[in-house]
Amino acid sequence: MNDNIDRAGATILGHRIRQLRKQRGWSLAELARRAGTSAPTIHRYEGGWDRFELATLRKIGAALRVRVEVRFVDPAEPRRARGPLSPRQVVRTLAPLFWDRDLVEDDLRRYPEWVVERVLVFGGRREVKLVREFFGDSAIRRTLKRRGVDDRTRNYWKLILGEEHRASESARP
Description:
- The protein is an all-alpha fold.
- The chain is about 60% helix and about 0% strand.
- The protein has helices at about 5-25, 30-35, 40-45, 55-65, 85-95, 105-110, 110-120, 125-135, 135-145, 150-160, 165-170.
């Protein structure tokens, strides 16, 4: 079932499975038992594995008592117009990238460079686009100065933001 699903979509689905499991207070083994599958399978799905079996998703959905929906969307269809991003939307989208602790709305305000760094290093196109829209390019520029950003990521973003071009122009006599 991975023909048209991108990695970000798989990650979001996995995060939702984990969220529902934890809301019920179940371990991986408990959800696996109730769904009639293995704990490693649940772990792979929660971790963003993108080779979903529809039958397994249905079993997981039944165990969690939620409806599983599969939709085919024409990429040419315009997306619904939306207003500015809310912190809640940002947290919900970025949460799978924060495996070591729960991302909360207050983190967006108190530690923006930390959030942006995690997205630049581990995020996909969707998450990066969201961060640029929410925080702006100035936050990316500040984040590029952090130690945790590797040279490859730093150089890529300098190129995208036009930093390399400006630096080479200012070095000319």
